[in-house]
Structure formats: C-alpha cells, structure tokens
TrEMBL record:
PROSITE patterns: SUMT_1, SUMT_2. Pfam families: TP_methylase. This is Precorrin-4 C(11)-methyltransferase. CDD domains: Precorrin-4_C11-MT. Signal peptide: none annotated. One of its GO terms (biological process) is methylation. It comes from Pelotomaculum isophthalicicum JI. Keywords: Cobalamin biosynthesis, Methyltransferase, S-adenosyl-L-methionine, Transferase. Residues 4-209 form the Tetrapyrrole methylase domain.
Length: 261
C-alpha cells in the first residue's frame, strides 16, 4: 500500500461492517484520525499498538491537514476514519481539497452507510415496485442551512422513500414539515444507533414519532425513515418473474412450476 492519506468509511457502528480494505488499512496505519463522536472505539483495537490516534472532534480542519501532510512527508500511512461512508455528511470534500492544494496524495475507501444499516434494522427495502423507486437522503435545517428548494416540506412532495440524518434533536419540527408533503399518517421509523449493540427501533407515523422518541429519551444518533415503503403493499419484481425475460434468462412458461399430476 502506498504512503498517502486514506479516507476510510468505518461503517455504521458494528466493527464487522467496515470493509476488508478499510480493515487492512487500519491495521497498517501509522497515523489514525478518527471521528470520535460517532466511530465505534472498538475499531481502534484493529490498529497497531504504536499507531498514533487522534480524535478529530477537538481539531480544526487546518490542524488535521497539517498533521496528515506532515505524516505523509515522513513516509507514514495515514487513515482518516469517518463514520458510515465518507461521502455523506463527513465534511470530507474540504479535507480532500486541502490535501490536493498541498500536493498530498489521498484515496477514498467507501464504507457502509448508516442508512443501509437502518433499512436492515427495519427489514424493509427503500425501492419497492409500485411504491417508490427513489430514496432521498437529507437533513433538517438547523444551524447549518440547506440550499433553497431542499426544505423538508418540498422534498416530501415527491412522496419518495426518505432517510433523515442529523435531525434527532429537532424531530418535532422535522416531522411536522415532512407531514406537509407526505401526510401525518405516513409510516415512520426512528432507528437509534443502527447496527450498534444498543440499537433501538421505534415505529409510528409522522404524527406521533417525535412524541415516541421523546418518551424513549432519544435526541441524537438516530435516523428517521419515512415513506410508504415501510408498510405499503408492493408489486412483484419483474426481475424474477417467470413471465419476464431478459439477457440472462429467457421468458418461462408461467405454469412451469405446476405439478404435472
């Protein structure tokens, strides 16, 4: 493995949900900068005893860039460990751009996002034939604004499957905005710490999910899922329908599985 900075997706929480490539890099790293507020600390057990580990929660962008650049200049392998997948709410673009400006080589290793772990927790598929073929990943506007046209009420008007990040602390407002587009009786599920040992799933509707979350004391580290995919009847997939042929399987007689007797 080349000496560079590797942005590694740590997965949603379960240490076994890091990728094989990410695990190998973590085991060889000389310097590890991890997102301490969300990354499972058990992942650091993979690191070598002599590896230097820094929690990015108390660091600025400039401090991280300086540390990574200095390590690579010294011939060290650096792992920047992000929760889930680095491409979602990881503030990773500014880090990559900063390294590029300094001439520091880097690579991104994708990870399992928490939205995938949340779907696994509720045992539902986001994209169901006849229900929804679109998944919206977004967050409620807080101290960090969202661009014009990306408010929750507007996005809810699409009636697509939706996963809300970074919004457990403002569920009352978020659910109310979503209800404007989906309707208050739309199914909703709150998944707390998806894939962690303390994972918890709360089911309800957009009308009552915030009350249920408050009663359970959940106000952070949770994803809100909403949309008809959570409970609506759906159409059978054409992919495995015997009457639907494609390049890998010809159309079959609809009665091919009938008992000839």
């Amino acid at each position: 493995m080349k000496v560079k900075v590797y942005f590694v997706g740590a997965g949603p929480g379960d240490p076994e949900l890091i990728t094989v490539k990410g695990q190998k890099l973590l085991a060889r790293a000389d310097l590890i900068i991890y997102a301490g507020s969300l990354v499972n600390p058990d992942l650091l057990n993979i690191a070598r005893p002599q590896a230097r580990c820094f929690n990015s929660a108390g660091m600025t962008l400039e401090e991280m860039l300086d540390l990574m650049a200095e390590a690579v200049d010294c011939g060290e392998l650096v792992v920047r460990l992000h929760t889930g997948d680095p491409s979602l709410y990881g503030a990773v673009q500014e880090q990559m751009d900063g390294l590029a400006q300094r001439g520091v080589p880097f690579e991104v290793v994708p990870g399992v996002s928490s939205f995938a772990a949340a779907a696994a927790a509720v045992r539902r598929e986001f994209t169901l034939p006849g229900v929804s073929q679109t998944l919206i990943l977004t967050r409620h506007e807080g101290r960090t604004p969202v661009p014009p046209g990306e408010g929750l009420a507007a996005l809810a008007g699409h009636h697509a499957s939706l996963c809300l990040f970074l919004s457990a602390g403002s569920l009352v407002a978020a659910a109310a905005e979503l209800a404007q587009g989906y309707g208050p009786d739309t199914p909703a599920a709150l998944v707390y710490k998806a894939s962690w040992p303390e994972e918890k799933v709360i089911r309800g509707t957009l009308e009552d999910i915030a009350r249920q979350a408050a009663a359970a004391g959940i106000n952070r580290t949770a994803l809100l899922l909403t949309g008809k995919f959570l409970s609506a009847p759906y159409l059978r997939s054409s992919l495995y329908d015997p009457g639907f042929g494609h390049s890998f399987r010809g159309k079959k007689d609809e009665c091919c599985n009938c008992n000839p007797d």
